[in-house]
């Protein structure tokens, strides 16, 4: 699904993707429309501009990924500002590409995003990795009498490990022989216990804990 408030640009991107054999299930020109249509068509990948009328792209990303953590979001923006890049990633975006990218680069980025690869315009990947390392090595100050972090159950840890490996909720449900809804409940409980907000933060936590190698 392609979201951009400029009709000619939006149509051109959709046309290039379709010509490459990708199935463009919908397009949208503003934030609220993007949320409505994405919930209706359930795309695998959302190609999203940040500067949208009605609702900023980061909020669109936050709402849709929060409701469906399996959704992959590739931000396609004219802005290469570091603050915009980091805000997009923190909102749940899988990758970030500048609009100066060529059609082939965009198509390759969409295909890689679809399988969960983090895709960034050269120069931006280092910025994001540097921020993640900083967050991992500079924990937020805590009060000396703050209670210990809640312990996850064995099942929650098992689900978290599979999330970190990039499995979808459906794949996790099949692997553990439980329902899709049960997987969602475990993830939501884990997010609440760890005081995290989305799948990106959850995966980062799992990687830092070494669960992706387990």
Quick description:
By secondary structure, the chain is of the alpha/beta class.
Question: Keyphrases for this structure?
Answer:
single chain; 214 residues; alpha/beta; five-stranded parallel beta sheet; 10 helices; 53% helix; 8% strand
Structural notes for this entry:
The structure is a single chain. Helices cover about 55% and strands about 10% of the residues. A 5-stranded parallel β-sheet has the order 2-1-3-4-5, sandwiched between helices. Strand 3, helix 3 and strand 4 form a beta-alpha-beta unit. Helix 2 runs parallel beside helix 3, helix 4 packs across helix 6 and helix 7 packs across helix 9. The longest helix is centred in the last third of the chain and has 15 residues. The protein is globular, with a radius of gyration of 18 Å. About 5% of the residues have low confidence.
* Mean of all residue-level pLDDT scores: 84
- Low-confidence blocks of residues: 141-147
Give Rg in angstroms: 18 Å
Strand content: 5-15%
Strand order of the largest sheet: 2-1-3-4-5
- Count of DSSP H/I helices: 10
Supply the helix-strand structural class.
Answer: alpha/beta
Shape: globular
- Could you give the distance between the termini? 34 Å
Extended strand count? 5
Q: Helical residue percent?
A: 40-55%
- N-to-C SSE string, H for helix and E for strand: EHEHEHEHEHHHHHH
Topology:
Blueprint: E1 2-3, H1 7-19, E2 27-28, H2 31-41, E3 45-48, H3 57-67, E4 72-77, H4 82-90, E5 95-98, H5 103-114, H6 124-137, H7 154-164, H8 169-176, H9 180-194, H10 199-208
Helix pairs in contact: 2-3, 4-6, 7-9, 7-10, 8-9
């Amino acid at each position: 699904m392609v979201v951009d408030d400029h009709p000619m640009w939006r149509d051109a991107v959709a046309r290039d993707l379709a010509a490459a054999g990708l199935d463009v299930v919908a397009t949208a020109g503003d934030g609220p429309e993007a949320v409505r249509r994405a919930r209706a068509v359930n795309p695998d990948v959302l190609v999203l501009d940040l500067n949208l009328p009605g609702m900023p792209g980061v909020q669109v990303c936050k709402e849709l990924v929060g409701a469906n953590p399996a959704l992959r979001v590739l931000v396609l923006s004219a802005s290469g500002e570091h603050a915009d890049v980091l805000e997009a990633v923190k909102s749940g975006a899988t990758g970030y590409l500048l609009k100066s990218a060529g059609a082939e680069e965009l198509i390759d980025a969409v295909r890689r995003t679809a399988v969960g690869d983090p895709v960034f315009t050269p120069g931006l990947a280092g910025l994001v990795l540097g921020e993640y390392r900083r967050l991992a090595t500079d924990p937020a100050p805590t009060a000396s009498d703050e209670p210990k972090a809640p312990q996850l159950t064995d099942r929650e840890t098992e689900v978290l490990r599979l999330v970190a490996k990039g499995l979808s909720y459906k794949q996790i449900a099949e692997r553990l022989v439980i329902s899709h809804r049960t997987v969602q409940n475990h993830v939501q409980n884990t997010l609440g216990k760890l005081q995290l907000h989305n799948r990106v933060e959850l995966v980062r936590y799992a990687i830092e804990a070494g669960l992706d190698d387990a």
